[in-house]
Description:
By secondary structure, the protein is of the alpha/beta class. It has helices at 2-25, 27-42, 46-64, 71-95, 100-128, 133-151, 155-159, 163-181, 184-189, 191-212, 214-237, 279-284, 308-316, 354-365, 386-390, 436-446, 463-469; strands at 239-241, 243-250, 253-259, 270-274, 287-290, 293-295, 298-304, 326-328, 343-349, 373-380, 398-404, 429-431, 452-457, 480-484.
Amino acid sequence: MLYAYLVILVTLYLIGLVLAKMQTWAPSVYLVCRRWWDYQLVGATVGTAVSVVGLVLVHGVVLVSASGDTVFEQHRVISDRLAQLGTVDLGVALLWWWHPVWHRWFARLGLVALVYHGGFQWTKHYYRRPHETQWQDLGEQHGLDAAMRTALGTWWPLTVSSTYYWTGTIMALALVALAVGSHRLVREGWYALFRAIHGVAAVVFLVVGLVHHWIVAVAFVGAGGLWVANVVARAKKAERGNVLALVPVAEDVVKLQVSYQGSDVAPGQYLPCSFSGSAWKDTWWSHPFSVSRIDPQRLTFYIKARGRLTRQLYEMAGDKEAWPSVQLGQPLGQVWAGLECPVVVLIAEGIGITPWLAVLQAAAASSSPATHSTYVIWTVRNTDLIAPLINETTTAHIDWQIYVTGDYQMESQVESLAIPPSCSLAPPYSHGRPHYPTLMESIRSRHPTQDVAMGLCVHDDSICANLARSKKFSHSQAVWHVYSERFDV
Ligand SMILES: Cc1cc2nc3c(=O)[nH]c(=O)nc-3n(C[C@H](O)[C@H](O)[C@H](O)COP(=O)(O)OP(=O)(O)OC[C@H]3O[C@@H](n4cnc5c(N)ncnc54)[C@H](O)[C@@H]3O)c2cc1C
């Protein structure tokens, strides 16, 4: 045992030495390792790291150790194991329902595993059929392909031939509904429909799955139990806050201030907020909003009227009597970890500036700021949003670069596009869209050897998001850490 520890320690030491040398020998390898270290390992808790490594190992061992006397037998073993793994993956996705990234990735893993399993089970039948006596003649006369093609016509008798097949088919259809129903087109166009499909398909998958195989019951009763515990724990930690202010600050944008007793919110995070007044309904249907300002016992949000709830909030603003109470769930999302970076670049489109306001507040409050240069690139449609939101920040040394995309050439709009005098910082602004490659290149060339923390809250298809995710700006002397926030779930 002692030898094993020694070997591990020496190996780690040697890896460290090699990595340190990599900076000069092979900068791109060094960069990949450093990104892994910075993004994946340093920020993760020990628990998360152990879970992820454990899960990767489980997937690897289960698949690599599959063996059989024939190739067919080997595939059968893999198919069965993937069915179990896929079920567990979906169970994990269920457990992490509140975490969009993990939920999505485990659901995808489960889907891929179950597609393999289903595909194998169906082709197994068609593979065998041509070898059965009544199909052999056909096979001999017209070849295996022709026999298999004809065998395809037997799908219905196959579907109803055994409990495995009919339940498996329904489960496959439920998975298709889950995948198609959560497509971005559905989520963005009909959010309530997406939630309904997700709920119904998940229940169908689960109930039929119990008939399909007992393993589904074991996996989902376990995951379901933990899921219920998680929902209850979150509901218990949720807190009901009073609305302290609800004021319109620009066209279709409202400022919401809520009393909050918790102390666990950090810049960059968002809170699930619900306004129905019913504890039960609030547990199931909340809306995420990024916190823009964290004060003792008070949180501030800026909310853009987008759909039913947000428009209701906007319309309620004038009528104090109608102000709802707010249930605030536990804070979620990535905590901004860029305070240690010498250079900070925050990029936002429209209301996407909200998480970065809290980051700027934290930077201004820091007693020993490590950041010496802060750039904010913000694209807005109209100038009326600029003054109220910029006035929320107190840091003087911010290089604001604001782009107004509204139709400024129309005579009637010229006046409303002027920055109001109430804007204390009066930053310069340009019309049109930013040319992100040029802007980022100029920042990079100003700080060629300094690490940059970049926050992005832009539309997913924005050129800037792709550019920032590319490795273009990082090199061995300066790493660009990218933190993305997405308002599209
Ligand atoms: C992490 C995160 C932080 C956000 N922060 C802010 C913010 O600071 N300010 C702000 O104005 N907006 C923010 N949003 C967007 C905000 O959550 C939606 O605009 C709001 O939920 C729309 O609700 P609705 O009933 O008015 O509109 P709907 O018509 O119901 O939906 C409009 C769109 O909003 C999204 N959406 C709706 N309901 C939900 C929900 N329960 N959960 C997630 N997305 C939903 C869907 O994409 C939907 O297509 C944030 C979103 C996310 C994911």
